[in-house]
Design brief:
Elements: H1 2-21, E1 26-30, H2 46-55, E2 60-62, E3 68-70, E4 73-78, E5 84-89, H3 111-121, E6 137-142, E7 147-152, H4 159-163, H5 173-179, E8 193-199, E9 203-208, E10 227-231, H6 236-244, E11 250-252, H7 259-262, H8 271-274, E12 277-292, H9 302-309, H10 314-321, E13 327-328, H11 351-365, E14 370-376, H12 381-392, E15 396-402, H13 405-414, E16 419-425, H14 431-435, H15 456-465, H16 471-488, E17 491-504, E18 507-508, E19 524-525
Parallel strand pairs: 1-10, 14-15
Antiparallel strand pairs: 2-3, 4-5, 5-7, 6-7, 8-9, 9-10, 11-17, 12-16, 12-17, 13-17, 18-19
Length: about 525
């Protein structure tokens, strides 16, 4: 009897899958790393951000060109001292239907919902990883149903960009109170798609929100799709095979083990795929780098760090290891897509200069043999083996220690590792977010300064970027900050990432963006 019941359940699940996926208006993608939560308060990684982006809205949003646009806020004003933001809330935005609402259906969003949502974000009992986004917020309150006001401690240029993050989404109090921790599995939001079903480790299903408030430029109601089907195939190779079989509508950023099957040496589709699929690429605000703990040797090991930076051929690395899926990090920490106005060729291979710095370092420190222990996870082993080979030309022995990602993150946060592989994905699209990595008040664990870099001139410049509005003046400051980083070399920038999307031919409107957000409200399938 038990076997028969189990067989029926499996049949029904697979039947639901097939019925759903047979619709031409269902968008299908895979999340190989699975999804841990659909609560926007826990949208710290892309695996969680992508589905929560479909379900929730905030006060403001960012378009594909990184412009700030109204979302649930109709408009806003900023006080003369740039510290008080007053948002007027639209009066026609409804939460998704739920029996937990008093009328058993839905209700209009108001300013009090944002007050509740922000209080929840900073509630220590919730322990949201996004609580930091309100660190500079002195107070917030609903003036009435229509006006939500936020006051900052200090003026901060990037505050609107921060509010576009999914952490700042609005959630309904009565639903969260009713569901408790289960809200992360059965969310209610305001977005273009609403939660339908989640069969853990199998499939997540979202369906069209018929009451969504946005329209396209021609007056057509959004979204176009009837739903979204997210599978959880844990293996990237199997994911690729499912895409080739037509069972997935797109794949993003294929892993290194299969890029040879997809891309030629120039980063374009191989001939056997170019007629069958569409490829779109754009800068993705993510910088991969090697970091040094400089807490005790900022000046002592300076020459060694500079020698390493001049020993690496980043263009060769990207061409042969990544098929040019990415950009050599020649300018500094801030990646392509944000560095256009202060780009300079600061990091390049010059073996003579590398040898000069290394010989000076050896003489000053009276050393001959140099061994460096670098800690990383397994995903970037090929890149680091390339670095290892490059450093052999200088007789530098690079030892690579592989550790699980969780141990690597913990070690960086505690300053355990002297040398480590790291990356920084932009929280919001502003160069200041990258430069915060070297601000002395952000030494880990209080911030993302994992290198413990300290420089008074740099700190002063960074603080200016928080308040200066003039773009020309800002770009000069950004240039100076990159020069300081280059001079002291607390990091070895490796490469800037690229948003890569391989799509079925019938998928229209799926655009790339610098934050690699998956926005499906204007996507449709061509007959």
């Amino acid at each position: 009897m038990i076997k028969r019941t189990l067989a029926i359940i499996i049949f029904l699940l697979l039947g639901c899958e097939n019925n759903l996926d047979s619709s031409k208006d269902i968008f299908r993608y895979n999340e190989y790393s699975n999804i841990s939560s659909l609560d926007p308060a826990f949208s710290s990684t892309l695996r969680n951000i992508w589905p929560t982006h479909q379900i929730f809205n905030g006060l403001v949003r960012m378009d594909k060109n990184l412009n700030i646009l109204p979302d649930i806020a109709e408009d806003w004003t900023i006080s003369n001292d740039k510290k008080v933001y007053s948002f007027k809330i639209k009066d026609n935005i409804y939460f998704h239907e739920s029996t937990y609402f008093k009328n058993g259906e839905s209700r209009v969003v108001n300013a009090h919902d944002f007050e509740y949502s922000f209080n929840r974000l900073i509630n220590k009992n919730i322990a949201s990883p996004g609580a930091w986004v309100l660190n500079n917020v002195k107070s917030f309150k609903a003036i009435n149903d229509s006006i939500f006001q936020i006051e900052l401690f200090t003026e901060f240029n990037s505050f609107l960009e921060i509010l576009t993050m999914k952490y700042c989404s609005v959630v309904p109090k009565e639903i969260v109170d009713s569901l408790g921790s289960s809200f992360s599995k059965k969310p209610i939001g305001t977005g273009p798609f609403k939660f339908k079903r989640w069969d853990e480790n199998i499939k997540l299903v979202l369906v069209k929100n018929e009451n969504y408030h946005e329209f396209d430029e021609s007056g057509n109601k959004l979204p176009y799709l009837d739903g979204i089907s997210i599978r959880f195939i844990p293996d990237k190779k199997s994911e690729f095979m499912e895409f080739l079989s037509g069972n997935l509508d797109f794949i993003s950023s294929p892993e290194n083990t299969i890029i040879d099957q997809i891309f030629n040496i120039d980063g374009n589709l191989n001939e056997n795929l170019s007629d069958k699929y569409n490829l779109s690429k754009s800068p993705y605000l993510n910088t991969e780098y090697i970091g040094f703990n400089t807490s005790t040797n900022l000046k002592e090991d300076l020459l060694l760090r500079k020698a390493i930076n001049y020993a690496i051929d980043r263009e060769k690395m990207m061409k042969f290891l990544r098929k040019n899926i990415g950009y050599p990090a020649k300018s500094g920490l801030v990646p392509n897509g944000l560095n256009d106005n202060f780009y300079a060729n600061r990091y390049f291979k010059n073996i003579d200069l590398a040898s000069k710095y290394l010989n000076e370092y050896k003489q000053i420190n009276n050393v001959e043999n140099i061994t460096i222990n670098l800690t990383t996870d397994a995903q970037y082993l090929d890149v680091l083996e390339f670095i290892q080979s490059e450093l052999k030309s200088l007789n530098i022995n690079l030892k690579i220690n592989i550790t699980p990602p969780s141990i690597l993150r913990q070690g960086k946060a505690t300053g355990k590792f002297d040398v480590f592989r790291a990356s920084w994905i932009a929280d919001y699209a502003n160069p200041e977010n990258y430069f915060s990595l070297f601000y002395s008040k952000n030494h880990t664990p209080f911030g993302p300064n994992y290198t413990f870099f300290t420089n008074k001139e740099y700190d002063s410049l960074y603080e200016q970027t928080l308040i200066i509005k003039d773009k020309e003046e800002l770009n000069k400051i950004y240039m100076s900050m990159e020069e300081i980083i280059s001079e002291y070399s607390p990091i070895v920038p490796l490469y800037y990432d690229m948003s890569v999307r391989l799509k079925q031919k019938n998928i229209i409107g799926l655009d790339n963006n610098a934050l690699n957000i998956l926005d499906l409200k204007t996507v449709y399938k061509k007959d």
